[in-house]
Amino acid sequence: MNNLSRRGLLKGALAMGAAAAGSRVVGPWIGEAEAATEQSHFVHVFFHGGLNAFFAGCAQQLRGRFSVTDTNMVAVGNGVHTDKETFGTFPKFALDHWAGIGFRHGDANHTVPENRNGGGEMAVVRNGTNCYLNELAAAMGGDSAFKAVLLGRRSQDYGVYQRWPAVNGVNLQRVANLRDALNAVGADTPDPNAPDRARLASTLEAAQDISARQLTTNPGRLSTLSASYDAAVTSLRKPLPPPVSFDEVDKAYALGGRSAIVPGGATSFAAQLACAEIMIRAAGSNVVHVSDFEPMWDFDADVNGPRSRDRFRGAGTYARITPIRTFLERMLNFPGKNVVVAISGEFVRETTGHGHGAGVVAAVFGKYLKQGLSFPVNAQARFAPNTPGTKTFWAAIAAALRVPGQPFGANPHPLIL
Amino acid sequence: MKRTSYLLAFAAVIAFAALGCGDDPNSLTGGRDRVGNADRDGENSGDTASALQCTEAPVGRSYTLFDGSKMEAKRENENVGVNRARVKPFAAMEKEFQRVLGVVPPSLKGAAGSFDVPAARWYGEAEYSAISLHAMAEIAYEGCLAYTKASPAFAAPPTEESARTECSHLMRRAWSRSPSPDEIGGCADLATKTLADEKDIGRRWAYACASVLSASQFLTF
Fold it and tell me: Given this model, what pLDDT does residue A348 score?
């Protein structure tokens, strides 16, 4: 049997199947990025239900609303104001490189099972039939086996968790357990009873070959499985990465030995941030999406009330600030890497009605970001009419990541160094 | 009398089955070669599958959804045997390994967190990522190692003949269908050629076994 030709045929057939299924034909702007001396990585921390703009840098504009006062607000610099007790405790390097980036996506509804193709979450992550996350990861190039990673799982697969078409072979790969991620990339101390990595790669390659006929006749249903064979084999064939142990991240993020990312789990949010660190350091992932969906960050019943602030001040299951701070401390200025972190959500919270805004102010941190605000909200948490749309947010992220070729067009946010 | 009732019931079932996807039994075009040839069987035969399409919308009940739309409006018209495979849920794997290998890999217990098991009272369609596939391949290997060490059939190094025999037996049992010569060859080649430098005979057989249990035919239904 000719393995190479069978694998080649399979890949060709699957590619045709994907095209037939309606996946977007990517333009010339998506391709392998030029090799850079400094590898870039993007971590998107997304709060399903909304992120109040006063956290993201607009506390001065919203003073007197949402329980924001002169006392509990801190001036970060260059117009960036935030909550002192929460986002204001981020490390100095993050505070010094904090860009509050506003964009108006125009959808003030939630992305929920009954509105799975609309709503704020989809307005942030969807670009036509594609997902910005794997589009960005594809544009960043590089040789990671796991270029775009999605952590955890929601009770139903909607919003960012729906199945997206691959972009130049880049799929969103889910990670449900930190230990599995470490094993797959070979970063932790090897288990003497585990199979040899090279031989397991051959085994999975044979399994994919054996599966060829079924994968070909199920181009929609099994496209993810097919891509998973490729990525798993590629990962197993790579040289071992710099070591990262579970013990190290367990201690740093106070996981208490828990490695599974379980919706609503006690340390699941911290585990997601720990996993983001693992995927950057060990797998060299380009894009990691951290979605916080349980509990939902929606406060309709408390429009203009203190709940946004109270929730972020929570501890235990609701602790969010400590894991983010830990990640920023450890990764934002990691030697030889350009790590960009964006904290965003479905929409800003307005002060009247349901409180759903039609856009987002994202707090973006990174070594090439300049402190300041771009298109902030006003005292009612509303955007100026000239506020640009979602694509410009991704254009700004691409610029901060030094992705060549402006994959999402020109960046109108003047906060990139 | 009783016998007549049985015959009538049987005839009704046959008539119902013959209706196919519409009222007109002729709305199914093409044929289906099922005469003992795995390569031509159902999903595996591209030309047959492409010919088997509904040529008219089926007449059925209409259901109005909460948003006012009709459930049947989004009904897919896929070819027969195409895009039907679904990943087995994690909850099924314990009995599946027991059925095929006679043992349950110890690491399968407590591995639910690796496989996106839905929360209680929720349903989630199972799916593999590269990382969970890697985890399942390691679990399969562990089970296969116990399986191959327990059987004298795997005491000697695999030969072309013994590898084809054992791969074929395992595939038939694991997949509940007859494998094609190419599929058997993929497993046998792994055991006899690709991993020929593996000195531990049990491990070499275990890799070949794990290739069968990591294939989509075992991971899906």
Answer: 96
CA distance A395 to chain B (A): 28
Residue B202's CB: how many other CB atoms inside 10 A? Answer: 17
B97 in the same domain as B67: no
- Regarding whether B101 and B48 lie in a shared domain, the answer is no
- B207 interaction partners in chain A (CB closer than 8 Å): 195, 199-200, 202-203
Q: Which residue of chain A comes nearest to B45, CA vs CA?
A: A217
Return the closest-CA partner of residue A284 out of A36, A41, A43: A41
Kindly determine whether residue B113 and residue A215, on different chains, have CB atoms separated by under 8 Å: no
- Overall residue count recorded for chain B in this entry: 221
Q: Domain segments of chain A: what residues?
A: 41-199+246-350+358-400
The CATH number of A41-199+246-350+358-400 is which of 1.10.287, 2.30.30, 1.20.1440, 3.40.720?
3.40.720
Partners of B130 on chain A (C-beta within 8 Å) are 145-146, 173, 184, 227-232, 235
Please check whether residues B51 and B101 belong to one and the same domain: no
Same domain, B69 and B137: no
Contact assignment for B130 to A227 by CB distance below 8 Å:
yes
Name the B residues in 36-95 with CB < 8 Å from any A CB.
43-44, 46, 49, 66-67, 81-87
Maximum C-alpha span of chain A: 74
pLDDT at B99 over 90: yes
Predicted model pTM: 0.83
Contact A203 B137 (CB under 8 A): yes
Q: Are B58 and B180 in contact (CB under 8 A)?
A: no
Note if the bond before A295 is cis, omega within 30 degrees: yes
Q: Are residues B119 and B208 in the same domain?
A: yes
Q: Are residues B130 and B21 in the same domain?
A: no
Last residue of a domain, one of B15, B43, B74: B74
Question: Are β-strands A337-345 and A80-83 bridged in parallel, bridged antiparallel, or unpaired?
Answer: unpaired
Answer for the pair B194, A206: CB distance below 8 angstroms, yes or no. yes
**Domain of B47, in residue numbers:** 2-74
Q: Is B19 on the interface with A (CB under 8 A)?
A: no
**Structural domain tally of chain B?**
2
- Contacting residues for B142 by C-beta, under 8 A, at least 6 apart: A193, B105, B106, B107
* B81 is a domain residue: no
On whether both B67 and B98 belong to a single domain, the answer is: no
Do B64 and B98 share a domain, yes or no? no
- Domain assignment present for residue B168? The answer is yes
Give the three-state DSSP class for A416: strand
In a domain, B109, yes or no: yes
Residue B42 C-alpha, separation from nearest chain A C-alpha, in angstroms? 10
Domain boundary among B74, B103, B118: B74
Q: What is the mean pLDDT of residues B146-171?
A: 96
Angle at A234 between CA A10 and CA B141, to 5 degrees: 90
| pLDDT tens digits in sequence order for chain A, 417 residues long | 344 344 554 555 444 444 333 332 333 323 334 344 799 999 999 999 999 999 999 999 999 999 999 999 999 999 999 999 999 999 999 999 999 999 999 999 999 888 888 999 999 999 999 999 999 999 999 999 999 999 987 777 889 999 899 999 999 999 999 999 999 999 988 888 899 999 999 999 999 999 999 999 999 899 999 999 999 999 999 999 998 999 999 999 999 999 988 877 778 899 999 999 999 999 999 999 999 877 678 888 788 888 889 889 888 777 899 999 999 999 999 999 999 999 999 999 999 988 999 999 999 999 999 999 999 999 999 999 999 999 999 999 999 999 999 999 999 999 887
d(CA B167, CA B182): 11
The confidence score (pLDDT) of residue A35 equals 41
